[in-house]
Amino acid sequence: MGFNKNLMVEIITVLEKRMKRDGINLFQNWFKDLHYTLPDEFKDESVTEKIYENYSHWIEGEVKKLEKETGLTWKVQTEDLNGVNERTRKVQLVIRHRLSDIALDLLDHR
Q1: Based on C-alpha coordinates, what's the Rg of the chain?
Q2: Which one of 28, 54, 63, 71 counts the least CB within 10 Å of its CB?
Q3: 28 vs 33: CA distance, rounded Å
Q4: Are 42 and 48 in contact (CB under 8 A)?
Q5: Per mean pLDDT, which range of 15-24, 28-37, 98-107 is the poorest?
Q6: 38 conformational bin, left if phi > 0, alpha if psi -120 to 50, beta if neither
């Protein structure tokens, strides 16, 4: 899906912790039902700020791709994320959208 390799490892680590906590069946159901919602683990601004600092170039590129794909500005796509700073909103947008894309892709290949 074009994820930055290092960021992918960070996200997988977070998802593996959730899977260990919840068990594989609950995790699989949760993941397939993401529907463009943000996993709780990425709601913390300190987490998203760190991601933005480490991967800002990639995040900005993905934001531009999402704007093209959806025909909507990132601000419109993140209206439900008001109350957090711009960088956090961008990271959260990219993570929720790309994880949902992966879940949908997996469902299509069943």
Answers
A1: 14
A2: 71
A3: 9
A4: yes
A5: 98-107
A6: beta
The structure's pTM equals 0.87
Q: What is the pLDDT of residues 16-30, one digit of tens each?
A: 999 999 999 999 999
Map tokens 């933005």 to a residue.
52
Tell me which residue of 53, 39, 45, 55 sits closest to 6, measured CA to CA.
55
Task: Identify residue 30 by its one-letter amino acid code.
Answer: W
Rounded Cα–Cα distance for residues 67 and 45 (Å): 22
At how many degrees (to 10) do helices 24-32 and 5-22 cross?
Answer: 130
Residues 6+ apart with CB under 8 A from 106: 32
C-alpha 15, offset from chain centre: 11
For residue 18 the two structure tokens come to: 């959730």
Contact 87, 49 (CB under 8 A): yes
